[in-house]
Design a protein that fits this description.
The complex is a heterotetramer of chains A (105), B (638), C (359) and D (170).
Chain A lengths: L6 H21 L3 H26 L5 H31 L13
Chain C lengths: L1 H6 L6 H10 L2 H38 L15 H11 L10 H20 L15 H22 L3 H32 L4 H11 L2 H4 L1 H18 L11 H4 L9 H26 L19 H21 L5 H28 L5
Helix pairs in contact in C: 2-3, 3-4, 3-12, 3-13, 4-12, 5-6, 5-12, 6-7, 7-10, 7-14, 10-12, 10-14, 12-13
Chain D lengths: L1 H21 L3 H21 L3 H26 L11 H23 L15 H9 L7 H29 L1
Helix pairs in contact in D: 1-2, 2-3
The chains are: A mainly alpha (105), B mainly alpha (638), C mainly alpha (359), D mainly alpha (170).
Chain lengths: 105, 638, 359, 170
């Protein structure tokens, strides 16, 4: 619990972070940068978990533990995604989103 | 007395079928023939033993008892359950004897006849399957079990007719038999449902024992002037007519001769085709008592007409197997009419007894005729009368046995056919003069065409053959000799001591005046045949020409096939089918195609949305989520 | 203001602490103290860095049977200060077409991460800036940031040698971080706490941890030294720089003070590794066998520095003894030998603690 | 003081997040993300979740960001700039994000949270460790194990995927 800060301000912060990530996810043209945006989204939710835990149920640990899980999942997701991106680069020498549209109508 | 061992009689062929069917590629032909014959031999011995013990000891207070051993097979509800079991009563025991005897003989015969055939083992497995089904049919305790085996019999008949499946005509014949009998069986099935619905049971015994009181109740529910139960019986008779090749449904039987000759002997002469007769006999009390036997009269008239028409057609056919096929049809018509004119009690039930008697003797001599024909065909390699002639010296045993069978079917005194036919004629005479006259006429025609055949094959012109004809091997002649013996001795069995409509034995005696009339008519037929066909001459042609159109009609079997083709092709396919097709094509298909075209048109417009960019999809997803959230919140606020 | 008081206890001298609080309002006081501590640590950082460089040169000279720097000041003790002055006055050159922002940012990553690193060590009972409850883990976390500076700097230089050096550094650091972490984790099983001051307290009663944990502790120490040497990109694991192959590796394009930052950071990293080793294995500021326990005026920080210098000399000894590894050998050593051994050792330690076999 | 720190951190987070999603230099975007992550770690420190902060730093700063930088090093050159996003796309995405943000904030602000009055000083590593390994009520042993299995699977999967072509050759 941060003195002088109420939960609304914190949730506003995380919401803004989340939607900045979403905006990046929509607009970035490069797979790596898209992944960065996903990290932002994940972090926003992880932060939400922790902060809500602190503000509403300070004697519980669920939020912290779930954040640990989220971080682990994020790491796993990134590792796999980057492996795929590197393989893609090996195949088509590009990591642009527009070059991966082979499933178009 | 315990007859539960009779369950083995069908089960042995079933085991044979399974073994021979599964290992048909593994078992060498020499062994499979022996296995089949041995198995059927066991059934044969068991059947005769059953007959011996039943007819000597099955009476209680002068009435033959019915023994039933059954188990509930499918239990739907307390009331609706389907049983499986064996029913031992005079006619089933008689049928057991017939089926097992003919089947055993045919097995023995086939070992010689089918020698060297590719599907030898397959043939025996089919035969075993047929035997199993036929035994099951005969021993059925209830309508449903009978129906099951009825269809199994049809299926194995289909398999055996189409045995030479590389031959298009055989395949077509198999299909024809299957479709026609299937069509008739539809009536049978509906009949079963009607009868069972109103009687509340499938069980033969219960249905038959209901005849006194309940039938009047049944009669109350009427449809088109007839009670529902009469309709049910007529429908059941439809099935019987299909199986037994009665008039409208007889067209499959001549074509069924495409199958191997032993099969014709077994299935299409002696056993399966009399299943219809057996079915009517099995339900005889119901037939007799419902609405004063209206359905039974139909049976009688259909039988009489069939027998007459078939006899006429048989005269002109040149394929010897077809002649025999029409002869079979004619004789079954005899049995049917005998049942039809029969009454129930005591001596009045003479027709019933005569029918069964004739069934028995006919099975023997007709199977023998077929086996003889098979023997001839085996040597001549042709089915046609014109390719035969003067074979009596080359094939003495075949000649003699064929002659015995011919005399028997012609009703020559002293032979089996004489006795049974006499009983039928007597029954007809006592009850229906019209039918009697027709029957006498048929007797004469029968004598004529069978001796036409006999003289055509064994006398007449001296044909040149590819190789010198010789007598068939012992494996074929021994069954023939046995059946020849039965064709004579069968007539001396006191049938009325054993079989009657009400299971009470009575005394029957030869009706001499009637026998004399029939015999003289038969003589006329034989003499005519002798004149026409003993030596090669032009008499038959002149005779045929004098009949003109009638001869042509007869030769073409009264255009029955053509009528059927016209009805199916022109009316069903042409008018009904065409309009149905139009509807299907323009309305049903049109709707579907319209839906498809609309979808295609819409998707052409919107396919650009599928850009292949996952971000676009995510945007649509989030946009949808936002919209839904807005709607939900809007509703929530208000 | 709980936050500051609780997490940054000012233990250097309580008098200064009290004095500052007495003359200023609370917020201002804590900010002042924070600045003061930062200045102290920066100074410490500079002095340690400079004199480790000198020590290295002296040790190298000694190993190679020569004199080393001996002109500036007595025994050349001002040599590195002179060097630093030279570097400060040098022009900051850079390549054309580089990412200026990242190029300039990179050295600070390295510097800041090392600086944060040294702030958590208890040099003595009183001398510790930041006694965080997850001390070891925090150190581990912070030290992993340093590699980002190397990677970014190498990439932003627009130089292929720098890029290769940076890539190698990334590989090496990420790989060996595992071994460092696992070997420390082995010891954490023994101490039951991550807080550095408590780790030292544990050793006060039971003896140094390398003795308490006997076999697995010794194995862990060996692994830690190997991996730690690799973490600091020192020979025989100096593939990152590898002068004979890559010029100067990732900092090829850096000059002047920025180069000095990388250079200093390397030595401070060495110091950090040595300090961790001292804290975790050799009892931190505790005297051997408690020989100075009774002497209240004795500066315990001396023990800490003596032990650290011993370990640093050991690491320098490595440098002048072993030839450089190839990059595949480096990775093979880590993934095929150190990591499995480490995991087995961790199990071993767990069993020992479970069965209560510790001394 | 803490409030000021929070505002500073919040400002850093938002500024660097925006910079991260708009920067046209790829490695800068990664570094901005790193700053966001470090600021979030700072937030964790601020609420005394030291362990989480350290995990955030270790995994994100030490692992994920290094992976990102690695991939950038492998696939991108320093002189390249990212392609410009079409303006139309930016506008649509912006409107969508703002709409979503609006709805989220609206729903947050219309809800009354029951903020707890007690405060929990600092979470201990020991507590979290025990919680993660306890199989009783409120224990997380199963998800913990599942995550471990997932990580192993991902490790193997990443190796296979990245190696792809070479494996085929062999």
């Amino acid at each position: 619990m941060i003195a002088g800060i109420n939960i609304y301000e914190i949730l506003t912060l995380t919401s803004i972070l989340f939607f900045i990530g979403l905006y990046g996810f929509f607009t970035r043209e490069n797979l790596i940068t898209v992944l960065l945006s996903i990290e932002l989204i994940l972090n926003a939710s992880a932060l939400n978990f922790v902060l809500i835990n602190t503000y509403l149920y300070p004697d519980l640990l669920q939020g912290a533990i779930f954040t640990i899980f989220i971080i682990a999942l994020a790491a796993a997701e990134t590792a796999l995604a980057i492996a795929i991106i590197i393989n893609l680069y090996k195949l088509i020498y590009s990591v642009e989103v527009k070059d991966t549209e082979t499933m178009k109508y | 007395m315990d007859f539960s061992y009779t369950i083995l009689i069908p089960l042995i062929p079933l085991a044979l079928f399974v073994i021979l069917g599964i290992f048909s590629k593994k078992i060498p032909p020499s062994i499979s023939g022996w296995i089949g014959s041995l198995g059927l031999g066991t059934s044969f011995v068991l059947s005769w033993y059953t007959a011996y013990s039943y007819f000597l000891g099955g009476k209680l207070n002068g009435v033959y008892q019915t023994f039933i051993y059954k188990t509930t097979w499918l239990n739907f509800t307390d009331k609706l359950h389907i049983d499986m079991g064996v029913l031992i009563d005079p006619i089933s025991v008689m049928m057991l004897v017939v089926v097992s005897t003919i089947s055993f003989m045919v097995h023995l015969y086939s070992r010689g006849y089918m020698k060297g055939d590719d599907g030898y083992t397959r043939f025996f497995s089919y035969l075993a399957l047929f035997s199993f089904s036929m035994f099951g049919l005969v021993l059925a305790t209830n309508l449903f079990q009978m129906y099951i085996f009825w269809e199994l019999v049809g299926a194995s008949s289909y398999l055996l007719i189409g045995y030479y499946y590389t031959k298009p005509s055989a395949v077509a014949a198999g299909k024809k038999a299957f479709i026609v009998t299937r069509f008739a069986d539809l009536g049978f099935l509906i009949g079963i449902l009607l009868i069972s619905y109103y009687s509340g049971t499938f069980d033969f015994q219960e249905i038959n024992s209901l005849h006194g009181s309940i039938i009047t109740n049944w009669a109350a529910t009427s449809f088109m002037g007839l009670s529902v139960i009469t309709w049910g019986l007529i429908l059941i008779y439809l099935g019987a007519a299909g199986k037994s090749a009665m008039m409208p449904f007889h067209i499959w039987l001549p074509d069924a001769m495409e199958g191997p000759t032993p099969v014709s002997a077994l299935i299409h002469a002696a056993t399966m085709v009399v299943a219809g007769v057996y079915l009517v006999a099995r339900l005889f009390p119901v037939y007799y008592f419902v609405e004063n036997g209206f359905a039974l009269q139909i049976v009688a008239y259909v039988g009489a007409i069939s027998s007459l028409v078939a006899a006429i057609i048989a005269i002109t056919q040149t394929d010897i197997k077809r002649v025999l096929a029409f002869s079979t049809m004619s004789q079954i018509g005899y049995m049917m009419l005998a049942l039809g004119v029969s009454k129930y009690d005591g001596h009045e039930g003479l027709g019933y007894m005569a029918s069964m008697f004739h069934l028995f003797t006919h099975a023997m001599f007709k199977a023998l005729l077929f086996l003889g024909a098979g023997s001839v065909i085996h040597i001549v390699h042709s089915n046609y009368l014109k390719d035969m002639g003067n074979l009596r010296k080359h094939m003495p045993i075949t000649h003699i046995t064929f002659l015995i069978a011919s005399l028997s079917i012609a009703g020559f005194p002293g032979f089996a056919g004489f006795f049974s036919k006499d009983e039928i004629l007597a029954a007809a005479y006592e009850n229906n003069m019209l039918i009697y006259v027709s029957s006498v006429l048929v007797a004469g025609l029968t004598a004529f065409y069978i001796f036409r055949l006999y003289f055509g094959i064994f006398w007449g012109k001296d044909n040149t053959y590819e190789h010198t004809p010789h007598e068939s091997p012992w494996s074929m002649t021994i069954p023939m000799l046995f059946l020849a013996f039965m064709s004579i001795a069968g007539g001396y069995i006191p049938f009325s001591d054993y079989i009657s409509a009400d299971s009470i034995p009575f005394k029957s005696h030869l009706n001499l005046p009637l026998a004399a009339i029939a015999t003289s008519i038969g003589f006329i037929g034989i003499i005519l045949a002798y004149v026409f066909y003993k030596k090669e001459n032009n008499l038959p042609e002149r005779f045929a020409n004098s009949f003109g159109v009638f001869y042509k009609w007869t030769y073409h079997k009264f255009y029955f096939d053509e009528i059927y083709l016209f009805v199916t092709k022109k009316i069903l396919f042409g008018i009904v089918g065409f309009s149905a097709a139009w509807f299907d094509k323009h309305i049903v298909d049109g709707t579907m195609v319209g839906i498809g075209n609309t979808t295609v048109a819409i998707s052409e417009k919107i396919k650009g949305w599928q850009s292949g960019k996952f971000q676009d999809y995510a945007m649509s997803f989030v946009g949808g989520g936002v919209v839904i959230a807005m709607v939900v919140f809007y509703i929530w606020i208000n | 203001m709980n936050f500051l008081i609780m997490n940054i206890p000012l233990n250097i001298t309580s008098t200064i602490h009290d004095w500052i609080y007495s003359i200023m309002p609370e917020t201002a006081a804590s900010i002042t103290i924070m600045v003061l501590i930062a200045v102290i640590y920066l100074a410490l950082f500079a002095i340690i860095g400079l004199y480790l460089v000198l020590l290295e040169r002296k040790v190298a000279a000694w190993f190679q049977l020569r004199l080393g720097p001996n002109r500036v000041g007595p025994w050349g003790i001002f040599q590195t200060i002179a060097d630093a002055l030279k570097l400060v006055s040098k022009e900051l050159t850079s390549n054309d077409r580089i990412d200026k922002f990242l190029y300039n940012l990179a050295p600070y990553f390295v510097i800041v991460s090392t600086l944060i690193g040294i702030s958590v060590f208890p040099f003595s009972k009183q001398f510790q800036a930041f006694d965080i409850n997850i001390g070891l883990f925090f150190l581990f976390a912070v030290s992993s940031i340093g590699v980002i500076g190397i990677l970014v700097g190498g990439w932003a230089s627009n130089n292929k040698f720098a890029l290769i050096g940076a890539m190698r550094s990334g590989l090496q650091t990420i790989s060996y971080e595992l071994s460092v972490g696992l070997s420390l984790l082995t010891m954490v099983l023994l101490t039951g706490t991550l807080q550095l001051s408590e780790i030292i307290e544990v050793q006060r009663t039971g003896g140094w941890l390398i003795l308490q944990g006997h076999i697995p502790a010794i194995i862990a120490f060996m692994i830690f030294m190997i991996a730690g040497t690799a973490e600091t990109n020192r020979a025989p694991f100096d593939l990152v720089e590898a002068e004979s192959e890559l010029g100067a590796g990732f900092h090829t394009e850096y000059s002047g003070m920025k180069f000095a930052y990388f250079f200093l950071a390397e030595f401070i990293n060495m110091f950090i590794i040595a300090s961790i080793a001292v804290v975790v294995f050799f009892g931190g500021w505790l005297s051997p066998f408690g020989i100075t326990d009774g002497i209240t005026w004795f500066p315990e920080v001396l023990w800490f520095l003596i032990k650290v210098v011993m370990i640093i000399i050991l690491m320098m000894w490595f440098r002048w003894t072993f030839p450089r590894l190839r990059v595949d050998q480096l990775l093979t050593l880590e993934w095929k030998y150190l990591l499995p051994i480490n995991l087995a050792n961790l199990m071993f330690m767990a069993v020992i603690i479970w069965m209560n076999w510790t001394i | 003081m803490e409030a000021i720190l929070f505002y500073i951190l919040a400002a850093l987070i938002i500024i660097f997040a925006v910079a991260s999603v708009t920067s046209r230099k790829i490695l800068r975007a990664v570094i901005y993300l790193l700053f966001v992550l470090i600021s979030i770690a700072g937030l964790y420190f601020l609420i005394n979740y030291n362990l989480l902060a350290a995990i955030q730093l270790t995994v994100y700063a030490g692992g994920v960001i290094v992976l990102f930088i690695f991939s950038v090093l492998l696939v991108h050159h320093v002189e390249l700039e990212l392609e410009k996003t079409p303006l139309k796309r930016k506008i649509i995405a912006g409107i969508l994000s703002l709409l979503g943000l609006g709805i989220t904030l609206w729903s947050i602000f219309t809800y009354t949270f029951k903020t707890a009055t007690t405060t929990y000083s600092s979470i201990e590593v020991r507590d979290i460790g025990l919680k993660l390994l306890s199989y009783g009520d409120g224990g997380y042993i199963l998800p913990f194990e599942v995550i471990s299995v997932l990580l192993v699977a991902v490790m193997i999967g990443a190796i296979i995927v990245a190696k792809g072509e070479k494996l085929k050759e062999n």
